[in-house]
Amino acid sequence: MKEERITLAHGAGGKETTEILENLLFNRLDIVYKRVKGGVGIDLPDDGATIPLPDGSFLVVSTDSYTVKPIRFPGGDIGKLAACGSINDVLVMGGKPIAFLDMIVVEEGVPMSLLEAIVDSMLKVLREERVPLVGGDFKVMPKGGVDGVVIATVALGLARKPIIDAELKPGDRIIVTGPLGEHGATIMALQHGIDAESKGLKSDVKTLTGIMIPLMEKYGEYIHAARDPTRGGLAMTLNDWAKASGTVIVVEENNIPVRNPVKAYSEMLGIDPLYLACEGVAALGVEGSRAGDILEYLRRLGCCKASIIGEVKKSEKYSGLVLFQSAVGGLRILEPPTGVLVPRIC
Amino acid sequence: MKEERITLAHGAGGKETTEILENLLFNRLDIVYKRVKGGVGIDLPDDGATIPLPDGSFLVVSTDSYTVKPIRFPGGDIGKLAACGSINDVLVMGGKPIAFLDMIVVEEGVPMSLLEAIVDSMLKVLREERVPLVGGDFKVMPKGGVDGVVIATVALGLARKPIIDAELKPGDRIIVTGPLGEHGATIMALQHGIDAESKGLKSDVKTLTGIMIPLMEKYGEYIHAARDPTRGGLAMTLNDWAKASGTVIVVEENNIPVRNPVKAYSEMLGIDPLYLACEGVAALGVEGSRAGDILEYLRRLGCCKASIIGEVKKSEKYSGLVLFQSAVGGLRILEPPTGVLVPRIC
Asked: Which of the listed residues A126, A159, A192 is the one where a domain comes to its end?
């Protein structure tokens, strides 16, 4: 019998990743070892974990690791990506970021100036966000031990009431705060040797602080789910939500904002932009009766491309699925991403 | 001019690591971006950070990354090492571990059975310690993108009063809870192709819960500093302490517990066991008048090799240094570790 080995698909963030994580981790632990009592742990697929604190508030903790080729790209670099990505994970859990930790692993021989530039990008974000770097780790691996630079991060935040995506309800509307697939399309183009910038492609990497903090203050009670659709794109986010909440989500192509350069490039490669990573967009599940007000407010916050793209419904038959209403009329299932979608882009 | 590049020494945990971290991170940030107000951050070299919570207690957060060759060794494997190391970092900050997160990066082609065994070792520790795994990340890198398996961890804990190593005071005694250098000697022997087990070498990797929790309950107010001397060994720990507290630490060779196989192997390689990593030992700085009672209590907790190895003194001339009183009579400075000491062992 041939021995089973790890493949790239196991780490691509799609179905194979879900399966290996279930086999390796989730199924091997009783529920009491999957979360702190009263909080969210690995029992729910969310952006981070929550831990109840003695005063009734919640600690939000999120962790992620970043490897991207190329290390610098139009719109940012791995340092900016790591800081923004981790801060965003706390924000979309309803938390206010309070502290950040980094773990940098560098390959021997990397130019010092490159490492300095990456770290500067990361620190610039932390300063702008007023989030202190409270700890970290630094390791060097021999040539071939790691490819370039890997940054793992931990972001901590405090939330009065965390946003638990599983609380999405029938009647809710799905909103995205900006156009989709910008980061994913840019990195894939670069990996195919295409001059992304000249094609109008640029990563959207940025923090969501200016959107999520005022939104939570004004409409916090009406936000039932929030996520930054990074690895696996919006398709992954919506499939997770439908599964976790036992609903069906119906989205309409006509309403989904995708910029023309991303559309053109996706068509060329035969990739649906809904599977491409965003690094500066939030997907929201909001109370249906407030969706219009919230959209209006998002536009005032500067999200001029924000859009209500779909609705959450109850359905025996389609529970846990995402349905896609195409512009030309057909309705199809939007599958969760599988295989090696967008390797090493975030 | 030749461009400066990253070398293995930059990541070895010694002087070069301190220098690159100062240049890359510490010197580029104002103090307000190095810690949460009222807590410990990267402004102090400690095992983790502390964050004041609204109720007056502290969150302790520690992060580390683990790469070790070989992945399995007498006494444990990288999974056990990662769980124990991270839990110990919280314990020696005076915290009770409450949650754990893991980030696993695997190289394409690693046998599934190996990964399963590693994860099982990690989960076994978490179950025994009753610490839930609340989140994490999983990535696969193409062949050559990472060497085997890298595990990064985050451990969170709560402390009523954290142990801040910089609070070490003249008059304090230094205690170690067990013999030194066991893990480091074992891994180095294996890397040199020596059958470690047959030479009586075995990693000491274990959690310090059974020592630190009762010790903090009974003698918490008298413990001024605590650390698990991993990378860089006891020499690194004591140099950090002397520097952070502005004291001089004098240790006596005669009182330092090192088992014979470790001593023999260290002599063969010409390495001082004080520079070798321990993974199941705590170094403590305790109130001088209570040192005897604490030693007695540690013995009752099962630390039969615990020993008072030195004293903290005030000195203008030697402030920030560690002095080593050798068994044959000489007194010399115990330098902080430099260069590639023990690459990739913890």
From this structure: A159
- CA distances to B4, B26, B309 from A120, rounded to whole Å, are 17, 12, 42
**SS3 state at A46:** coil
pTM: 0.86
- Report pLDDT for A3: 86
Q: The domain that contains B117 carries what CATH number?
A: 3.30.1330.10
- The verdict on A113 touching B (C-beta cutoff 8 Å) is yes
> Is residue B306 one of the residues assigned to a domain?
yes
Contact A197, A185 (CB under 8 A): no
Vertex B244, ends B238 and B248: CA angle to 5°? 55
B3 at interface of A, judged by CB pairs closer than 8 A: yes
Residues of chain A found within 8 Å of residue B152, distances taken between Cβ atoms: 65, 103, 137, 152
- Rounded Cα–Cα distance for residues A232 and A27 (Å): 23
Average pLDDT, chain A: 92
Residues B190 and B152 in one domain: no
Q: What are B101-158's pLDDT values in tens digits?
A: 998 989 999 999 999 999 999 999 999 999 999 998 888 888 876 778 989 899 999 9
The ipTM (two decimal places) reads: 0.81
* Residue at A3 is within a domain: no
Contact (CB, 8 A) for B145 and A107: no
Q: Are residues A229 and A326 in the same domain?
A: yes
Statement to judge: residues A140 and A234 lie in one domain: no
Residue A208, token pair as written in the block: 């969501």
Domain membership flag for residue B39: yes
Same domain, B200 and B279: yes
- Find the residue in A nearest to B136 (Cα): A63
Do A325 and A182 share a structural domain?
Answer: yes
Q: Are residues A114 and A226 in the same domain?
A: no
Q: Indicate the residue type of B165.
A: D
Last residue of one domain, picked from the residues B143, B159, B175: B159
Do A278 and A194 sit in the same domain of this protein? yes
In SS3 terms, A65-93 reads as EECCCCCEECCEEHHHHHHHHHHHHHHCC
> Residue B90 is which amino acid?
V
User: Around Cβ A241, how many Cβ atoms within 10 Å?
Assistant: 27
CB contacts of B33 in chain A (<8 Å) are 123, 126-127, 130-133
Pinpoint the alpha helices (H) of chain A.
15-24, 78-91, 112-129, 182-191, 209-219, 233-245, 260-269, 291-300
**Of A104, A101, A102, the residue nearest A141 (C-alpha):** A104
H/E stretch holding B243 reads: helix B233-245
Does B300 touch chain A if contact means CB atoms closer than 8 Å?
Answer: no
Burial A268-279 (b: 16+ CB within 10 A, else e): eeebbbbbbbbb
Q: How many domains does chain A have?
A: 2
Of A63, A116, A138, the CB nearest to B11: A138
A341 assigned to some structural domain: no
The enclosing domain of B174 has a CATH number of 3.90.650.10
- Asked if the C-beta of A122 comes within 8 angstroms of chain B's C-beta atoms, the answer is no
Q: Which domain holds residue A116?
A: 8-159
* pLDDT at residue B39, as a whole number: 92
Considering only CB atoms, which chain B residues are within 8 Å of A17? 138
